[in-house]
Amino acid sequence: MEIPEHVDRVLSVVELIPPGHVMSYGAVADVVRERGGTASARSVGTVMARYGGAVPWHRVVNSAGRLPPGHERRARAALDAEGVPFRGERVDMRAAAWYPED
């Protein structure tokens, strides 16, 4: 099955997120747009829900640091193992948010 270009662009950005860091759906969309694609936070969420299993999906959270709906336990365990800081049930976005430099 051929993966649509938009899906490939989103997954390529997610693969760049280093361990111990996260990006919001909106930040992923911003990078996709900067690289010549089109994306919204909602479309990134859709891509992650349908195709995200092969990339570090747990490193994509909402802008408030909430974990992927329905996968909170698995995401929390994976992020804890990477040393991602939390404030209660949410990722501490000030400390853990990452954005590519290029």
Strand order of the largest sheet: 1-2
Gyration radius, to the nearest Å?
A: 13 Å
- How would you describe the shape? globular
Q: How much strand?
A: 5-15%
Q: How does the major sheet shape up?
A: 2 strands, parallel
Q: What's the domain count?
A: 1
- First-to-last CA distance: 30 Å
Q: Superfamily at the CATH H level?
A: Winged helix-like DNA-binding domain superfamily/Winged helix DNA-binding domain
* Total beta strands: 4
Q: How does CATH name the architecture? A: Orthogonal Bundle
Helix content: 40-55%
**Poorly predicted regions:** none
Mean pLDDT: 95
Instruction: Name the helix and strand elements from N-terminus to C-terminus, one letter apiece.
Output: HEHHEHEEH
What top-tier CATH class fits best? Mainly Alpha
Q: Determine the number of helices (DSSP H or I, runs of at least 4 residues).
A: 5
Task: Provide the CATH topology.
Answer: Arc Repressor Mutant, subunit A
**What is the quaternary state of this protein?**
single chain
Keywords: DNA damage
Domain Methylated-DNA-[protein]-cysteine S-methyltransferase DNA binding: 8-84
InterPro entries: ATL_DNA_repair (IPR052520), MethylDNA_cys_MeTrfase_DNA-bd (IPR014048), MethylDNA_cys_MeTrfase_DNAb (IPR036217), WH-like_DNA-bd_sf (IPR036388)
Protein name: Methylated-DNA-[protein]-cysteine S-methyltransferase DNA binding domain-containing protein
